[in-house]
Amino acid sequence: AGTQRARAGAQTSLHVPYGDGEREKLDIYFPAERSGTFPVLVYIHGGYWQCLSKDESGFAALPLVSQGVAVVAVGYDTAPRGHMDAMVLQVRRSLAFLVQQYSGIRGIFLCGHSAGAHLAAMVLSTDWTEYGVVPDIKGAVLVSGVYDLEPILHTYVNDALSMSREVAQRNSPMLCISPAVPAATGCEVLVAVAQHDSPEFRRQSQEYGQALRAAGWSVSLLDLTGVDHFDIIEKLSEESYVLTQV
């Protein structure tokens, strides 16, 4: 419902292709006052890499576009069609496309939930030299994320993903933290976790946040009381919600 409201209440460009794949599309919610430059929040949806889509991802748009921020919801090929390597690549390519396509962008802020937080974290470890652009990523809000894929290998989640141990290691943000290069020192990372997230989500959030900090990144940990794995992100449709404010 929040997405429908946002599509009705904001200037939008829907289903903008950043590649040839069926799901390689973006929904862009522009701020009403679009004079000159504007910051962009790029939202990457969760769903254990196999459910949901960008079409349910506009719920955070209205409170932000009213503050002059553009919101971009990223589509990617979920499993079983999409494989982990491919999803990571798609999200990286979508950012490169945004930067090349919209010269008005002034700073990119990543936001991902659950599996989307994993993909956003993988963006932070990108070597951009092969993309021909370096997105100016000013911040990342990683919400209830998964940062080590190995524990998933022997669970039902991997039935659709069919990851080998090698694929899981190659795509675990915990295992590919790059030392904070000068450009990254201007990037603030917020690792948010819900009070009622499972112990594994809470543990991974804490360990990933600590590992980033140890590598020289600017990191804050936010432990949100009274929310669970789902409403921690759904409440972004509310202007007064602490995470919306942050």
Automatic annotation (TrEMBL):
GO terms for biological process: L-tryptophan catabolic process to kynurenine. Residues 26-123 form the BD-FAE-like domain. The keyword rRNA-binding does not apply. Keywords: Cytoplasm, Hydrolase, Nucleus, Tryptophan catabolism. SUPFAM superfamilies: alpha/beta-Hydrolases (SSF53474). The keyword Hydrolase applies. It comes from the Eukaryota. GO terms for molecular function: arylformamidase activity. Transmembrane segments: none annotated. It holds the Pfam family BD-FAE. HAMAP family: KFase (MF_03014). PANTHER family: AB HYDROLASE SUPERFAMILY PROTEIN C4A8.06C, KYNURENINE FORMAMIDASE. This is KFA formamidase. The lineage of its organism: Eukaryota, Metazoa, Chordata, Craniata, Vertebrata.
